[in-house]
Design goal:
alpha/beta; Rossmann fold; 60s Ribosomal Protein L30, Chain: A; 4 domains; seven-stranded parallel beta sheet; 25% strand; elongated; binds 1,4-dihydronicotinamide adenine dinucleotide; binds 2-oxoglutaric acid; NAD binding; amino-acid biosynthesis; NAD; D-3-phosphoglycerate dehydrogenase
């Protein structure tokens, strides 16, 4: 039975959805704080569903040998080691839209809270102080809001702020002028934003480029009296430098939902009058939590049960409709790619995948990933369908795709040509009743199904060879399951693909290579 561990506080709907799809669910939010218990649960788990409390580190991933998918019920994936997951062939998914409105609303609420000192006034009033003159605020109307990052959440914040009649400017190097214009947002440099904005709101992911984007230097040029709102990630602001800027009045106030270290139970910024804080509540509404729980449960179940891929950060998307159509071709691609890889000699320099016939109209990226992963397995221990194309690129191996709409003799064929330092080798396969068949091998036509233990033999086509091969196999006590023959037209050499009942035993390659007419003999494992 497929098993999914939920190690964070996810909406109960996630459990209901997974169980309805006959998935064994372990729902234990305490696991987020107990790495040892999490490791034990993950020993036989296929999926892991988390929010932000669970840290899916390289160590956690290395101890989860069956894990196929990590699903983040939310947006930020900085608590997941994506490189480690990719290296282990684990798909990493998130739910990019489920909590965006809620988080944008929190940013707007925080902007009001810090501008009108609502939390401080609330606390004082409840202490019967009635300090009316102490809590003089600032209006948002007519002010400039500077967004650092204007994607999903920043975009929603922009539209809400425009409703409040604020002028919205943004620093986002990846946002086109056209999109910014549609949003009614003026694109500016970071420096211009810092010097112009009355309110600055952060909405970027945390990465090496954005870490400390509100740096000490940024705070030196910031418009005096600006307010800063951060409902994205703690590491975006240099917290020490912010404390100083708040103290000397350069920054009028800060509203922070996120912190460098979380949970943040004690923090130097907490003592300040002009700071409003919440405990990473950006996504915490019933609506958002239902959305992300339902979405991630469905995405995980779809992936584990059908192969559909949605919102993955490390693999191409495949819809639930595409998945069943692709599955047999991915399987065919793996067999053909593996055979081409196993029969090539020398370092692989390039892999060309040619799609002919109906298959050319399908989404081919997942098939290519399967081909490349299978072809490179002979050379790279760590390759898998998730990291294959990236790994190939890394090693300077070119991946080329070719498509033709027609396939003369079959509905569809898939050909893989592997180019190496020593030459090239090509294999073509087709589906017969949904099962992979090899229909061309090294330029020779034949028709062979693929089984777990096979040998490939090239020999001078002279009488007596097959009998000799049969004797060698008989002496090794290995039964021949199927025997497929073809002939190379130009040289007249024969090619044979022989399926053997050899289990884990090695076929007697040395004895086969000693046969008089032999030119080449290789074992193939699938
Ligand atoms: N407080 C909370 O509970 C929540 C926080 N978040 C966080 O909010 C942030 C934004 O999320 P989304 O809007 O969904 O992401 P998104 O990916 O839709 O938007 C991010 C935007 O940042 C821009 N960007 C990337 N690098 C940049 C750089 N170096 N400088 C300026 N802009 C840059 C991108 O072009 C993009 O437009 C993320 O960090 C996410 O983790 C998301 C949900 C809840
Ligand atoms: O799950 C949460 O409460 C945090 C959400 C969040 O930070 C995100 O989705 O990036």
């Amino acid at each position: 039975m497929v098993k999914v561990v939920i190690s964070d506080k996810l909406g109960e709907d996630a459990v209901r959805i997974l169980e309805a799809r006959k998935i064994d669910v372990v729902f234990n939010p305490d696991l987020a704080k107990d790495p040892e218990a999490l490791r034990k649960e993950l020993a036989d788990a296929d999926g892991l569903a988390i929010r932000s409390a669970t840290k899916a580190t390289a160590e956690v991933i290395a101890n989860a040998p069956k894990l196929k998918v990590i699903g983040r019920a939310g947006i930020g994936v900085d608590n997941i080691d994506i490189d480690a997951a990719t290296g282990a062939g684990i798909a990493v998914m998130n739910t990019p839209f489920g909590n965006a409105v809620t988080t944008a609303e929190h940013a707007i609420a925080m902007m009001f809270a810090v501008a009108r000192k609502i939390p401080q006034a609330d606390a004082s009033t409840k202490l019967s102080k009635w300090e009316k003159s102490k809590f003089m605020g600032r209006e948002l109307f007519g002010k400039t809001l500077g967004l650092i990052g204007a994607g999903n959440i920043g975009g929603i914040v922009a539209s809400r702020a425009q409703g409040l009649r604020m002028k919205v400017i943004a620093f986002d190097p990846f946002l086109s002028e056209e999109k910014a214009k549609d949003m009614g947002v003026e694109l500016v440099s970071l420096n211009e934003l810092l010097t112009r904005a009355n309110f600055i709101s952060l909405h970027t992911p945390l990465n090496d480029k954005t870490r400390n984007i509100i740096s000490r230097e940024a705070l030196e040029v910031i418009r005096p009296g600006a307010f800063i709102v951060n409902c994205a990630r703690g590491g975006l602001i240099d917290e020490d430098a912010l404390a100083e800027a708040l103290d000397d009045g350069r920054v009028a106030g800060a509203a922070l939902d996120v912190f460098l270290e979380e949970p943040a139970k004690e923090h130097p910024l907490f003592d300040r009058e002009n700071v409003v804080v919440t405990p990473h509540l950006g996504a915490s509404t019933q609506e958002a939590q239902e959305n992300v729980a339902v979405q991630i449960a469905e995405q995980i179940a779809d992936y584990l049960l059908t192969g559909a891929v949605q919102n993955a950060l490390n693999m191409p998307s495949v819809t639930a409709e595409e998945a069943p159509k692709l599955k047999p071709f991915i399987n065919l691609g793996e067999k053909v790619g593996s055979m081409a890889g196993q029969l090539s000699e020398g370092a692989i320099e390039g892999i060309t995948v040619r799609f002919a016939g109906a298959v050319s109209a399908l989404k081919i990226d997942p098939i290519i990933s399967g081909v490349v992963s299978a072809a490179l397995k002979t050379q790279l221990a760590t390759v898998n369908a998730v990291n294959a194309t990236a790994l190939a690129k890394d090693r300077g191996i070119s991946i080329t795709e070719e498509k033709t709409e027609t396939s003369p003799n079959f509905g569809s064929t898939l050909s893989v040509r592997v180019t190496t330092s020593e030459g090239e080798f090509a294999v073509t396969g087709a589906l017969f009743g949904g099962e992979p068949r090899i229909v061309r091998l090294g330029g020779v036509r034949l028709e062979a199904s693929v089984s777990s233990c096979m040998i490939y033999v090239e020999n001078e086509d002279k009488p007596g060879f097959i009998a000799g091969l049969g004797e060698v196999l008989r002496d090794a006590n290995i039964n021949i399951a199927t025997f497929n023959l073809g002939r190379r037209e130009e040289s007249g050499d024969a090619v044979a693909l022989v399926a053997l009942d050899c289990g884990k035993d090695e076929p007697p390659l040395e004895a086969i290579r000693a046969l008089p007419q032999i030119k080449k003999a290789s074992t193939l494992r699938f």
